[in-house]
TrEMBL record:
GO terms for molecular function: oxidoreductase activity. It comes from Aestuariispira insulae. It holds the Pfam family Nitroreductase. InterPro entries: BluB, Nitroreductase, Nitroreductase-like, Nitroreductase/BluB. CDD domains: BluB. This is Cob(II)yrinic acid a,c-diamide reductase. Residues 23-188 form the Nitroreductase domain.
Amino acid sequence: MNDQQPTENFSSDFQEDFLHLLQWRRDIRHFRTDPLPDGAVEDLLSVANLAPSVGLSQPWRFVRVSDPKRRQEIIRNFEEENSAALGDYKGEQAKLYASLKLSGLRDAPEHLAVFCDPDPEQGGGLGRKTMPETLAYSCTMAIHTLWLYARAKGYGLGWVSILKPDFITTALDVPKDWQFIGYLCLGYPEYWDSVPELERRGWEHRQAPQILER
């Protein structure tokens, strides 16, 4: 990691590359099963640790899930919750939902769970007295930092949200007061596409930002 201070603004070429990175970052559900290189996960998490956090509290807690039994419990919970979610839709929308692949849990070589420590000693409470939720926001920033760096390295990341938080906390045997933020699948994608899969499949389309003037 280069700690040298930049002496000038980022070049226009870099800015264009960064825009491409944002455009090609995707929520991956289709993974190859071959493993990532040795040390890749540690490298990714060291970069995620550069994310901004309220009061420099770094409240994120990463759990690398390698145990096959624990993984199977996670997969079972996803399948149960996904089946329950299907009941919220009717007609053609239900058919479309049922056809969507909404996780890469069975194929991704790496599983990462991200939790938030709700009262970390680090940071001394700065900046979160009136908005304690900024701790969880900080953890989301760490995930996004990880996501972009993973894409830059040629890896894919998928965020699985169809899970019961309390179940995940118990299944992974972490402190009960940790807040579950997200479960991530990580590995090499089967293919890349600059268009979100949900948009390609006709579920939704990206809209322009909503901006209010006051």
